[in-house]
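Lab channel / #folding
Pinned by the channel admin:
"Please post every new chain as: sequence first, then the C-alpha coordinates as a reply. Keep commentary short and put observations after the output so the thread stays searchable."

First post following the new format, from NK:
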Amino acid sequence: MDTEERRTVSSAAPVAFEIAEEPREFEASGTQRQLWVEEPAVRPRLPDPVRTAAVRAVILTSLTIIQAMVAYLCTLAGSWLAFPMVLSSVGSTVLATWGVLDVWVTRQVWNQRHGVVSVPSSTARQLRRERRKARRAARRSARIRQREEGTRRSTGRLSQA
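Reply from TO:
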Protein backbone atom coordinates (compact mmCIF):
# COMPACT_ATOMS: atom_id res chain seq x y z
CA MET A 1 0.00 0.00 0.00
CA ASP A 2 1.51 3.32 -1.04
CA THR A 3 1.57 6.41 1.13
CA GLU A 4 -1.03 8.03 -1.08
CA GLU A 5 -3.38 5.08 -0.62
CA ARG A 6 -2.87 5.10 3.15
CA ARG A 7 -3.74 8.77 3.32
CA THR A 8 -6.93 8.33 1.32
CA VAL A 9 -7.98 5.26 3.32
CA SER A 10 -7.30 6.85 6.70
CA SER A 11 -9.04 10.12 5.85
CA ALA A 12 -11.98 8.52 4.05
CA ALA A 13 -13.05 5.92 6.58
CA PRO A 14 -12.19 6.23 10.27
CA VAL A 15 -11.43 2.89 11.90
CA ALA A 16 -13.88 1.80 14.55
CA PHE A 17 -12.92 -1.00 16.92
CA GLU A 18 -15.63 -3.27 18.22
CA ILE A 19 -13.75 -5.51 20.57
CA ALA A 20 -16.75 -6.71 22.57
CA GLU A 21 -18.73 -8.01 19.58
CA GLU A 22 -15.93 -9.69 17.61
CA PRO A 23 -15.43 -12.84 19.74
CA ARG A 24 -19.17 -13.56 19.81
CA GLU A 25 -19.25 -13.51 16.01
CA PHE A 26 -16.49 -16.11 15.83
CA GLU A 27 -18.07 -18.24 18.54
CA ALA A 28 -21.41 -18.22 16.73
CA SER A 29 -19.90 -19.31 13.41
CA GLY A 30 -17.93 -22.14 15.04
CA THR A 31 -14.58 -21.08 13.49
CA GLN A 32 -11.62 -19.84 15.45
CA ARG A 33 -9.99 -16.55 14.71
CA GLN A 34 -6.41 -16.96 13.53
CA LEU A 35 -3.70 -15.19 15.43
CA TRP A 36 -1.47 -14.80 12.37
CA VAL A 37 -2.78 -14.30 8.85
CA GLU A 38 -0.22 -14.49 6.07
CA GLU A 39 -0.55 -12.14 3.16
CA PRO A 40 1.08 -12.86 -0.19
CA ALA A 41 4.38 -11.05 -0.65
CA VAL A 42 4.36 -8.15 -3.07
CA ARG A 43 7.94 -8.86 -4.08
CA PRO A 44 9.61 -12.25 -4.08
CA ARG A 45 12.31 -13.08 -1.57
CA LEU A 46 15.91 -12.25 -2.49
CA PRO A 47 18.14 -15.19 -3.45
CA ASP A 48 20.39 -16.44 -0.64
CA PRO A 49 23.72 -15.06 -1.95
CA VAL A 50 22.19 -11.64 -2.57
CA ARG A 51 20.55 -11.60 0.87
CA THR A 52 23.84 -12.59 2.51
CA ALA A 53 25.67 -9.78 0.72
CA ALA A 54 22.93 -7.31 1.69
CA VAL A 55 23.15 -8.26 5.38
CA ARG A 56 26.93 -7.93 5.24
CA ALA A 57 26.61 -4.49 3.62
CA VAL A 58 24.12 -3.29 6.25
CA ILE A 59 26.39 -4.42 9.09
CA LEU A 60 29.44 -2.74 7.52
CA THR A 61 27.53 0.47 6.87
CA SER A 62 26.09 0.63 10.39
CA LEU A 63 29.51 0.02 11.95
CA THR A 64 30.98 2.75 9.74
CA ILE A 65 28.33 5.24 10.86
CA ILE A 66 28.93 4.35 14.52
CA GLN A 67 32.68 4.70 14.03
CA ALA A 68 32.28 8.09 12.34
CA MET A 69 30.08 9.27 15.21
CA VAL A 70 32.65 8.15 17.79
CA ALA A 71 35.41 9.92 15.81
CA TYR A 72 33.33 13.12 15.73
CA LEU A 73 32.61 12.98 19.47
CA CYS A 74 36.28 12.26 20.22
CA THR A 75 37.22 15.27 18.10
CA LEU A 76 34.78 17.49 20.01
CA ALA A 77 36.12 16.21 23.33
CA GLY A 78 39.73 16.75 22.25
CA SER A 79 40.66 13.13 22.93
CA TRP A 80 43.85 11.56 21.62
CA LEU A 81 41.66 8.80 20.14
CA ALA A 82 40.19 11.19 17.55
CA PHE A 83 42.94 10.83 14.94
CA PRO A 84 43.06 6.99 14.92
CA MET A 85 39.24 6.91 14.80
CA VAL A 86 39.16 9.26 11.81
CA LEU A 87 41.71 7.08 9.98
CA SER A 88 39.77 3.91 10.73
CA SER A 89 36.53 5.64 9.69
CA VAL A 90 38.05 6.33 6.28
CA GLY A 91 39.00 2.67 5.96
CA SER A 92 35.55 1.59 7.10
CA THR A 93 33.97 3.87 4.50
CA VAL A 94 35.95 2.07 1.80
CA LEU A 95 34.81 -1.29 3.18
CA ALA A 96 31.16 -0.18 3.38
CA THR A 97 31.32 1.03 -0.22
CA TRP A 98 32.76 -2.33 -1.23
CA GLY A 99 29.92 -4.07 0.63
CA VAL A 100 27.24 -2.10 -1.20
CA LEU A 101 28.93 -2.73 -4.56
CA ASP A 102 29.15 -6.41 -3.63
CA VAL A 103 25.36 -6.52 -3.25
CA TRP A 104 24.91 -4.93 -6.65
CA VAL A 105 27.40 -7.25 -8.39
CA THR A 106 26.02 -10.37 -6.67
CA ARG A 107 22.49 -9.44 -7.75
CA GLN A 108 23.59 -8.88 -11.36
CA VAL A 109 25.47 -12.20 -11.46
CA TRP A 110 22.47 -14.03 -9.98
CA ASN A 111 20.14 -12.51 -12.58
CA GLN A 112 22.49 -13.43 -15.43
CA ARG A 113 22.94 -17.02 -14.26
CA HIS A 114 19.38 -17.81 -13.26
CA GLY A 115 17.33 -15.45 -15.39
CA VAL A 116 15.08 -12.74 -14.13
CA VAL A 117 12.36 -14.59 -12.29
CA SER A 118 10.96 -11.67 -10.33
CA VAL A 119 7.97 -11.31 -12.63
CA PRO A 120 5.77 -14.26 -13.65
CA SER A 121 5.84 -13.20 -17.31
CA SER A 122 9.61 -13.09 -17.31
CA THR A 123 11.40 -13.20 -20.66
CA ALA A 124 14.01 -15.66 -19.37
CA ARG A 125 11.34 -18.02 -18.06
CA GLN A 126 9.43 -17.87 -21.34
CA LEU A 127 12.57 -18.60 -23.38
CA ARG A 128 13.38 -21.62 -21.20
CA ARG A 129 9.81 -22.88 -21.58
CA GLU A 130 10.03 -22.57 -25.38
CA ARG A 131 13.39 -24.37 -25.46
CA ARG A 132 11.96 -27.20 -23.33
CA LYS A 133 8.97 -27.54 -25.66
CA ALA A 134 11.26 -27.64 -28.71
CA ARG A 135 13.47 -30.32 -27.09
CA ARG A 136 10.46 -32.45 -26.16
CA ALA A 137 9.01 -32.13 -29.67
CA ALA A 138 12.37 -33.14 -31.20
CA ARG A 139 12.63 -36.17 -28.89
CA ARG A 140 9.05 -37.16 -29.66
CA SER A 141 9.57 -36.94 -33.43
CA ALA A 142 12.84 -38.92 -33.14
CA ARG A 143 11.03 -41.67 -31.22
CA ILE A 144 8.23 -41.79 -33.81
CA ARG A 145 10.78 -42.03 -36.64
CA GLN A 146 12.59 -44.87 -34.88
CA ARG A 147 9.34 -46.78 -34.39
CA GLU A 148 8.36 -46.32 -38.04
CA GLU A 149 11.76 -47.50 -39.23
CA GLY A 150 11.60 -50.46 -36.87
CA THR A 151 8.16 -51.51 -38.11
CA ARG A 152 9.27 -51.17 -41.75
CA ARG A 153 12.33 -53.31 -41.17
CA SER A 154 10.51 -55.95 -39.20
CA THR A 155 7.67 -56.30 -41.74
CA GLY A 156 10.15 -56.55 -44.58
CA ARG A 157 12.12 -59.32 -42.90
CA LEU A 158 9.07 -61.37 -42.04
CA SER A 159 7.70 -61.25 -45.57
CA GLN A 160 11.01 -62.40 -47.05
CA ALA A 161 11.35 -65.34 -44.70
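NK: Helices lie at 3-12, 22-29, 48-77, 82-114, 123-160.
TO: also worth noting, The chain has five helices and no strands.
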